[in-house]
Amino acid sequence: MNTDGILKNRDAEAKAKVKVDLWLFDGGKETILCREQAKDELNPGSSKVTINESEEIAKAFIQEYVGDSFYNFHFCDVQKSFNVQSKKRKGLNDFFGEFITNYDRQKQIAENLDLFAEDVDRYIEDMTKQKVSQEVIEDHKKQLAKAREDAKQVSYPLTVFYPGEKTEIAGLNKEELAAQKTEVKKCGCQVAKEGIYKLVENEALKNQQPVIKKIASYWETKEEYIRRVVKAEFFKNTDAITILETKLRKLKGMSFSRDTIFQDGESVIALEIGGFTQSDFDVDKKEIKEKEKRVKDLSGEIELLSKNNKMLKLLSSLTSKKFA
To answer: 0.70 cut: is pTM over it?
Structure first.
């Protein structure tokens, strides 16, 4: 039943897995390392390795202390087992040297070298793409030579922008030309600045034209109302219209009848309407009360006269009957 050379129990099936347990004791602590595999393959995917029944712990342990070389040895091969048994104790360290050596650092260096080589290749490729052809360089040289030749035929403008500006520049060196160029740029920026400010100002005035026309139209059609608004100083108090509308509603709600005249008068004074003061109301109130008293007195006299008339009529009636 030793299929593919792996050691199995004589009663095991062909596809049965073989398990090797290693007990490690550190003082009173016990650790069990277990490897389970069906065939003798040097493939990490075909092995199940656990430490204390945990694959995660085993994987972390192998990566930290051993590396992938843990799987570089056959699981439990018959021939290899005989080979190990034939080794002397002093030769075992060399025999298992590959197993106990961690090559992760060397592998990382090799991988980094491969990445560096890829980066170098990409850099070379990018530089090759950016390389300017000789034809383009020659064309630029021709354009530069033509520009220099054309520049010789252009005279310096005679308009002086600032005091000390030299219009004869043929004798100036590079530093002097650069300094004069800087000053001319400053002057140009100042001229452009003034021109831009003027354009902005003109544009602002253009935007104000519709507003001005609208104001003029209001003045032509509603001059009387505008004057009244200015006189009332509505422009100083934007709530004045609302206040006046409130006062108007209250005034419209008053009856100013004979029975409510005194109460309505007090309400009008509370509204603080111009032209009607407390002193004016007191005078009017006094006059009204005097007239009411006069009316009452006249009513009394009228009533008395009416009674006298009735008495006279009655006496007249009795007298006429007696003489009759």
So the answer is: no
